[in-house]
Amino acid sequence: MRESIERGIDERKISETSLPQKTPLTQITQREKQQSGSTSGWMRHFFTEDTSPDNHPVIDLQRRAAWVGVALILQALNEVNEMVSGYYQGSIPLLKIWSGAISFPLMLGSFVALWMAFRPTTLKQRLGRAKGASLLHPAHPSRWQRLILIGVLLTSIAGAVVFGQSIVMSFFMPPRYTNDGTSLDTNAAVLLLQGRNPYADSNILNVVREFSIQPDWTTPLRAGQFANRLDYPSPAELGSAMATDQKTGHAPEFESKVSYPALSFLTLVPFIWLNIFNVLALYLFCYIALVAIAWKVVRPELRPWVLLLALANVPMWTSVVGGNLDLLYILPIVLTWLLRKRRWWSALFLGLALASKQQAWLFVPFYALMVWRQDNFMEVVRRLLIAGGVALAINLPFILWNPQAWFAGVMAPVVDPMFPSGVGIIGLSSTPLLPFFPPWVYDVLECMAMLVALAWYWRLCKERPEAAMLLAVLPLFFAWRSLPSYFYCAAFPLFILLATKAFPEKSKRASLLQRPEPLPFDYQRAGIHDIPIPVGAGTAFQGIHYLRNWVIARVRPQESAG
Fold first, then answer.
1. 370 contacts: CB under 8 Å, gap ≥ 6
2. 20 to 30 A from 219, CA-CA: which of 27, 49, 73, 184?
3. Domain map of the chain by residue range?
4. What is each CA distance from 220 to 229, 267, 393, 440, 474, in whole angstroms?
5. How far is CA 155 from CA 72, 76, 309, 486, 494, in A?
6. Per residue in 68-127, pLDDT tens?
7. Cα distance between residue 380 and residue 363, in whole Å
8. Mapping DSSP to helix (H, G, I), strand (E, B) and coil, where does residue 327 land?
């Protein structure tokens, strides 16, 4: 008993002598919290004031959200460039000539920003950031993050304006489609309700008369009056060709086919059945549903970022106003990745995306790699069979109705002689910087980019499955046609999956095991030797504590790996 009491007194002295060494650390930590609390009142909604190690995942996600904000700012600037060059191309031709040279670095910079958002961090980088958040570097957020937040807020003002415009155009105005794909799909729904085959009976001249489409809102082809040329026709040339075609009743210079899978216009049938010919509300609902899903799946600390990025996403708001079909396929694609742990739901949403637009097909190999890496090859086969069956079931009636018309329509973006256009490498060819190469050169570059993206995703998919939102569409940057709308639906979905992946739902047992537990040598808690007890009992309790801590230390890594 005496030896036990003496040993307890000795350990108490050790603990008391160790406390003064920790006092400066406590004081510095408190000073650090005071400094972090100096963040502006409104900024603390976007950057947490808690810089403790337990909150580092939130800090890291907010840093990545800032990079997504950079991408949205650059894409919004590209929209400004497209609008200015299109509006003033008649009076200032130089703007149109050099527009591609401006769009190329803007879009490339947005890709780099998105790569910074999902880039996995190495151990060295994590240690460096831990040091940066330590006593010597307590500032959070950093200056560049504050500047980016202010820039995103300014961009959100433009987004709010376009949001209001989308509401007015969706509910209070007659249909006005600046995208001929939407007008052709709306006409396809009309034809279907009349009992006619949309893929066989579609005609751009009827669409122009029905929806008052401007000639420069169409997709010109390198045929008829535009044959044997590569430079994109001017609005005056398009208007002249359209006027001539309306007189002759034949329009070889313009795309007349329904160029998308069947779900693209089947979703519009209820609108036409209700005698509502303005279908922009569908694309507005798709984007609002995407934002609602993001609000639901992310942690509360990131919800201000959800609203801010959703509002500052000017490119997607302009897609709503233009009736862009990319909004229709990106919603089920996001759900496919969110529900990747559930075979049937994930495969079902993938099938719906495949039946909506061809860009969704590019996500199939990335989805297969992700499932293969996380499960096994047979699981890939099962899911792809389900997704393919759903897409086939939706399109099968039209395939049986007229196989040739369906195939010609769905393959029109690849087969028909469209003009080179876009913000990728082909955009530089519209400037004096780079000539036009043969189409097969761009096909080779696109295939090579796809192989590199797949190899990259093979390494990333287990840790960063959300990278597919960018990597799947990145090869189109090297294609013959790389329209900016192909890439506008990457940033916000990537943030949704990024924020969700970082905080997976835990089981009750795992959450209990991950709670911080005091150890016997933790001086923040009274030790077992503070109570005078027999030596044998003290030794027994001490052994139980050591065994318990050893079990927790062994089980935690297994739960994390699982």
1. 337, 340, 457, 461, 465, 468
2. 73
3. 2-36+507-561, 180-273
4. 12, 26, 32, 20, 25
5. 8, 8, 9, 21, 19
6. 999 999 999 999 988 887 666 655 666 777 888 899 999 999 999 999 998 877 655 555
7. 13
8. helix
In the block, residue with structure tokens 């007890």: 533
Contact 468, 496 (CB under 8 A): no
Cα dihedral sign for 240, 245, 251, 255?
A: positive
What does the block give as tokens for 392? Answer: 């086939």
Unique residue bearing structure tokens 């395939």: 399
Residue in this structure with the two tokens 């050790």, named with its chain if needed: 14
Residue 483 and residue 422: Cα distance in Å, rounded?
A: 4
Q: Is 199 exposed, middle or buried (0-12, 13-18, 19+ CB in 10 A)?
A: buried
Return the H-helix or E-strand segment holding 214. none
Distance CA 261, CA 10 (A): 80
Residues ≥6 apart with Cβ < 8 Å to 212 = 176
> pLDDT, tens digit, for every residue of 513-538?
444 444 333 434 444 444 444 445 55
Q: What is the pLDDT of residue 539?
A: 54
List of residues 6+ apart from 307 with CB closer than 8 A? 291, 295
What are the helix (H) ranges across 37-91?
56-87
Cα 391 to Cα 348: distance, rounded to the nearest angstrom? 9
CB 349 within 8 A of CB 390: no
Note whether 216 and 179 are within 8 A (CB). no
Instruction: Please state whether the peptide bond connecting residue 420 to the residue before it is cis, i.e. omega within 30 degrees of 0.
Output: no
Identify the DSSP state of 325: T
DSSP state for residue 419 in the 8-state scheme: P
Tokens standing for residue 203 = 């005609």
